[in-house]
Design a protein that fits this description.
Elements lengths: L9 E2 L6 H12 L2 H8 L3 E4 L2 E5 L7 H16 L5 E3 L7 H9 L2 E3 L18 E4 L6 H10 L2 E4 L3 H15 L3 E5 L5 H11 L6 E4 L2 H12 L4 H7 L10 H4 L3 E5 L5 H19 L4 H4 E2 L6 H14 L5 E5 L5 H11 L4 E4 L10 E4 L8 E4 L7 E7 L5 H14 L4 H5 L12
Helix pairs in contact: 1-3, 6-7, 8-11, 13-14
Length: about 425
Amino acid sequence: MPDQGRQGDYFRKGLGYRDEVAGILAHDFNSDLVAEIIARGYIVETPGLTILMAREFGFCYGVDRALDYAYEARERFPDRRIFITGEVIHNPRVNERLRRMGIIYLPDGKQSPDRLRDVGPDDVVLLPAFGAEFDDVEKLRGIGCTIVDTTCGSVLNVWKSVDRYAKDGFTSIVHGKHWHEETRATCSQVNRIPGGRYLVVLDMDEARWVAGVIRGDKDPREFRRRFAQAASPGFDPETDLARIGLANQTTMLSSESLEIGEFLGRAIAERYGAASLDEHFRSFDTICSATQDRQDAVQELLGKNLDLMIVMGGYNSSNTGHLVEIAGRTVPAYHIEGARDLLSVRAIRHLPVGAADPVISEGWLPPGPVRIGITAGASTPGSQIGRAVHHLLSFRGLTTEKVFGREILPSREDAT
């Protein structure tokens, strides 16, 4: 059995308890029902109801790793306080599970600048899959506590890119949400480099503004007002947009990231000439493969004559929201957090695209034969997906015994 660890230890490659927690993780998050559907070709087909699952959905490698490390930390340090600097992933039920394990969530840094005041050298602190801001990590190192770093490898790739940009005198243009934990962590990596500059661009509308300043068509004073919360301190658009490198929040719509990159590249070429493009512009190498795979799988599913799509994931999950956005261009798409949002055959609670709060809609499930697509963001466990499928079957008076010839519980939690 590994030792319990010392104060000041930094874990990034596991804690030596993977085998001990594997069964607990499977119990909490896996689904035998989902596994059965995958084995049958990602489809459930009965008279009057067809459920088609996306080929890529749910937990990605980075999320699996983050949860594994969180469970390992609890197992390895049973008598020590364990804090986490933010939501391990954007799924309220998963985060509640960690709270029940005794993991303490620190307040948001924007609301509580002194949020680390209760952390002592005997404590353990988890850094979530989104990463943590550089200053926070430095403070934690100074405290001397044990750090368990679950930052996703795709996020680290973004950090490497913006680090190179800053050291080479390029401003990092980050396609993302300036308030999002991951983007804040990325921008903090730029800030640690002397002279580093960043600008966070939310969408194509904001990219057009940036392009207008690059070409000289937009007023820099209005630009400063518009991007006051999204730019590095002292940002000067008239000089800091002369050399730019593209990066992105890994959970953004990848097609939009690429579109923004191409658009800004053209603006740079117009301003400085195509022959000088390499001196003024660097493009993406930070598109997350898991995000791309889930978005591609939704596009594939939309070609299968669906009547509607169910997309599962936390309401504050960026990657889930983009899956809803893609699906909603073709069919009615409903973003739900869990099976409990499937209220009845008549009513569903869901978050419309662009809305701040969920709503309840009536008449969401058409009468007669229906083809339902189902997918889930990278922070959604199979156990929640299994429960949703179980609900959908029940709305048509079906049971797993009728459909599969045997009873299959929607998730392993239901066996307890």
